[in-house]
Amino acid sequence: MTTPTTSAVLPPSPLVGEGLGERGSLDSGNTVAPHSTVPLSPTLPHEGGGGKGAVLSVRNLSVALPVGADRPFAADNISFDVKAGEILCLLGESGSGKSIISFAVMGLLPDNVRVSAGEIFLGDENLLTLSPAALRGKRGDDIAMVFQEPMTALNPVMTCGDQLDELLAEHTQLSAVERKAKTLAMFEAVKLPEPDRIFTSYPHQLSGGQRQRIMIAMALILEPKLLIADEPTTALDVTTQAEVLALIKTLQRERGTAVLFITHDMGVVAEIADRVVVLQNGKQVEAGSKDQVLRQPREAYTQMLIASVPGTEPPAEGIAHDGTALLSVVGLGKTYSSGGWFQKKRTTEAAKGVSFTLHPGETVGIVGESGSGKSTVARCITRLIDPTVGDMQLGSTRLDGVSRDSLKLARKRIQIIFQDPYRSLDPRQRVGEAIIEGPLNFGVSRTSAMARARELMNLVRLSPDVLSRYPNEFSGGQRQRISIARALALDPEVLICDEAVSALDVSVQAQVLKLLEEIQSQLNLAILFITHDLRVAAQICDRVLVMQRGEVVEQGTARDVFITPKHAYTQRLLASAPGRGFEFATQHIAVP
Amino acid sequence: MNAVFKHVLKNGAVRFGLIVLSVLVILAILAPVLGTVDPAWLDAINMNQKPMTTADWTGPDNKTAPYTFLMGTDSFGRDVYSRVIYGIRVSLVVGVTVAVVSLIFGTFLGLMAGYFRRVDAILMRVMDGMMAIPGILLAIALVAAWGAKLSTVIIAIAVPEIPRVTRLVRALVLSIREEPYIEAAISVGTPTWKILLKHVLPNSVAPMVVQGTYVCASAILLEAILSFLGLGLPSEIPTWGNIMAEARVVFSSAPHNMWFPGIFLAFTVLAVNMLGDGLRDTLDPKFNKRGQK
Fold first, then answer.
1. Would you call A422 an interface residue with chain B, using a CB distance cutoff of 8 Å?
2. What local confidence, expressed as pLDDT, does residue B266 receive?
């Protein structure tokens, strides 16, 4: 609307030249001919219609939301091209309309949402004027899609081999033997180990990364012209993410596939994109090459987004926190056992031998991938679960092996903030009631608890007037602020943040981190910060513990761990952080 | 809460159910003034009259006056219209009471089983055992032991429903228990009973209300079946089931005796079920999309 549509089309610039060189060199070694016969020239002027050389050309696309939604258009006057052999990233925070655009291209919009204006060209054909049957033919053959959550996108009762076989049987004339050979070759191409075993495996028998490789194999086996990848690595661990990103990039270069890559993660954009379209609230904010958008952003929104990306290196030497530890954990372990009477007994060590100390005013980070045991440690300390072994001491109070009653007093001093802002507040409880619930449990009168709640709302930058509302009236970031207010209502000494900013958009994440840091300095809080996000940990933590498979493999000051990692796993983690080494435009905001 | 009501009332099925049920409730309450006569009074002269027949009717006070039998009379000369209208009372009382009783017990047991693992193991085996008792057999036993009374019928129908409600509530509690807001409540020191009352229960109310309507509908049907089988209330108290049971004998000559209570029964159950479906569509997030259309 406000952005001229031509901004999607790159003006010839020296920065794009680099991209051309890269693509040109790849073209020469290419066995698969690119679908477009037009030379891949970024200097080519784009006209209306198909946009020559573009596999996908979206022109002035508007997608209308049903009456009564928070805004009239999910996507408003969006225009961009994706050329063969190129990766275009649609970058936006939640609610930016980036997924709606991909659904519009696939012709999979929900019933109550419709395209109200514009054109979507695949080659020379306008997808919006095709019959449903013709569009179905396009999907799979010409356009394929990879989704965020591979477990739900694969059919759980079919073997992986059968799922690809079905696709080939439907779309090609190949014989059963040829189909199997092609499927196995594809499994090999996506670097799945033991293709024969994978062929007969069900999705639940594979890891998340392997499942996503199956999805990619399914998407690419019919050699589509266009691949739409909707947050394909968001649900994956950082090391797996790095592998999958590299795989998508390699396959796409080899096959000359055009990729429309949807993501909220600036690091991923830095890693994979050729060109970027930035979206905000359904509007196109800025478009250009990766280098131009990420290094010389023109629009204020893009600049703000990029400034919100935490850097991978700790900003400065943290203050050393000596003296008596507030919280000390020695040899903490948690073993789960299953089975028993009828099954073979199996034990899983979720955490073992975890030891660390936490001082007032200090932030200690626990980083690790899913299943590393970092959340188990947090839940043991808060005694939401009972540790199997280990000593935990808060000041002079023991936390382990004590009765529930004495635990109640200790609980008051340790508060926890959870990851999912949509599930950590009771949907049937007014936020004011949620905040005063703790103080009421400890005998504070209702009036003074409410007065304190109003103060806390000011502290977390929310209006005290909204205390009588229900959680569904708030955004994710606001809910997380309410969760912080609830935790602070008991005047805790230790605050545990269990992935507390991981579900938030990057700009909101920066605000919440800033808020936490301010509160910490005001109240001299000790913070145990649990995260999988190395960038966040690098910015906020004084000391860091790296966990892998339940054990602490490395611990030290943030600078030591992030700049000179000693353990191989830490090194691998750091090397996998997307966009590492990419110089973003402006100075990173200094969070601590 | 007001907004929830408005949202629910937008649903057509809910409106239909509520309108039909309100009409039935009004009919049941106003039964004595709707031109009815004593539903249990036998008048040997007017046996098996066809609907809309006008004839002289002698009442309990020995006065004789012309009376129009809207739905005819049965083989004992009782007015079917009066019996059907009074029968609404029994059906509604049984349906609502059974729903309330089984919801109260089922919710309590379900909360216990869902939240406390140790209780769960024992309680659910007891519930499994209860579900293995055939409902009709239980009714025969109870009627034999305590006599054919309204309370006996209610207990006979409610007892087999309790395990079903318990299972539903337990399943709800099992999933709610894992929500982070429950862990948040634990970590601010909220005692367990308060967590159950203030967090778990309010979040399981919507599916329970829906289940309540299904229990109500099946209780109305079951009561009719029990009465039809002669295991329910004695025929001095008119119920749709025992009207139909008596009509069965003369079905070929006087089918109206069967039709009228049958139609009322079908409409009542339909209305309750539609109310339940509508509530599920509007209250259950999984069906919300359909409900909004």
1. no
2. 92
